Amino acid sequence: MADFLQLDFDTHQALTRLYADYAHALDSAEWDRWPGFFTERCLYQVQPRENHERGFALATLSFDSQAMLRDRIYAIRETLFHDPYYQRHVVGAPVVRHIDARGLHCEANYAVFRTKLDGPSTVFNVGRYLDVVVRTPEGLRFAERRCIFDSEMIPNSLIYPI
Q: What is the per-residue burial (b if ≥16 Cβ within 10 Å, else e) of 98-124?
């Protein structure tokens, strides 16, 4: 099993930058950038912790390609009606749990805060990312990103990516 210390400096920096750039893009509502953090064939899921721990496949959101991520962005902009809000991600440092032929298997805790235009900031979603990160010609990308949230309840509807 590989750990954080076995990564070379450049890979560690690139991994940290991937996580930071991902959060910044979402917090800045740069929705068109979101699919670019993933490989063409990818997995993005938002799943309750209980389902994940029990091995249940049921997820709140589940997309398996960049094309599906782009469709979600279209829906956010054109078809979903909701009260606008800002979100802010606080993401822990990614920890590489192991490395295999599929890529770097990483984990990082996250908290997403939501601020509606007419109210105070609140905790929206808390959990951990379980990721498989791969090297591509464009740099490191997520082949898989599972957002495992701790609460069984999500306030209102889940509109923006976690």
A: ebeeebbbbebebebbbeeeeeeeeeb
